[in-house]
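INPUT
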Amino acid sequence: MTSLLGIYRPRNTPMHLAPAWFKALLLLAVAIVAVLLTDPVNSALVMGACVMLLISTGPPLKPTVMVALALAVTSSTRMEEMLNLISRGLRPLRRIVPPETIGLMFALMLRVIPEVVRILSESRDAARARGMDRSPRAILVPTATRTVGFALQLGQALHARGIAEEGDAPAKYRRARRSR
Amino acid sequence: MIEFKDAEFIAPESGVTLVKPTTVTLPERRVSIIGANGSGKSTLARMINGLVTPTSGSVSVNDLDTVKDGAQVRRQVGFLFTDPSSQLIMPTTIEDVTLSLRRSIKDRKERHHAAMQVLADIGLADKADVSINSLSGGQRQLLALAGVLAVTPTVIVADEPTTLLDLHWRAHVGALLRSLPVQLIEVTHDLEAAARADRTLVVDGGAVVYDGSPAAAVAHYREMMLARAERVTTS
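OUTPUT
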């Protein structure tokens, strides 16, 4: 899939001419506003403004369509249906990869994103409370350590719930684990 | 029945003994484990479902060894963590419960029906399609419990399940746990809850230092902690 980081195209639009710091600030401000807004009318207005801004930059069509489509799919499909799809799709390869585990990895990836956002927000508040809100280290170090802690807890919980147990793994992995 | 036979756990990273050789048999329906922070009570509890495996000795549940029969033990022993957020995986309430049932019920409709039944039993049926992020702390703990109950365990190990909850949810989750038709092993700092068990273990320095009736165990623990606090204050 085309990387979103490599889709720059040289143009002369206002967004292209604006300095990078302004665009980063704009991104941060809109992200904060989008998170804080709760009513649908204002949220739709912000979304409309963002779409207009995107169109004004004359973005490359293919990656934009793919991102929009990915968003449409994830916002209209239950995670369980995704798990079923991935498990069914990978079933022919079950001797090589464990289909349930791959599906679960996908679910976990989406599960971790809001948690990291929450940890980041709490770390920022904690840094602010200690008068260190300008120190990236005071925000990023606790965010990183707590994220690792959360991942470890999540792993333990998966183990405790018996999800993706040894029985789900392909036979050759089971044999390899037993021989250890 | 849970049996610790000379079970010891030494942390592989640090070489510190977190649980000293312990021999104890737990046939009672409700057992509480109390102890100071870092005393080893959570590690002891994690040994029951094989999250932590003994360095020496053995732990068995209904004659199944937690090392040799790990997967079978985990099917029988549900585990409830202090922070339910780390136990919830799927984006909505119903999906998280159905995830627990994926292995046992292959038919999608049947799985959904079974999950709805569990949610109804626990009082979360009206939250079935709600995002886990919009649930309160108490509701999240209930959902974590629903995920555990869905696979019909015979034992539930709860590691400080009400520590993060307000008084209302503490009472609700506590009462619900005690009413379940399973063996309940509860690690807790709530001495009132501990006193409602049939038997209480007091853990200190990685060892069971008192094992007996809840009232006597709680009194022993209080005395021990007060004496320790006094020593710290006077030194």
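end of record. Chain A touches chain B through 28 residues (CB under 8 Å).
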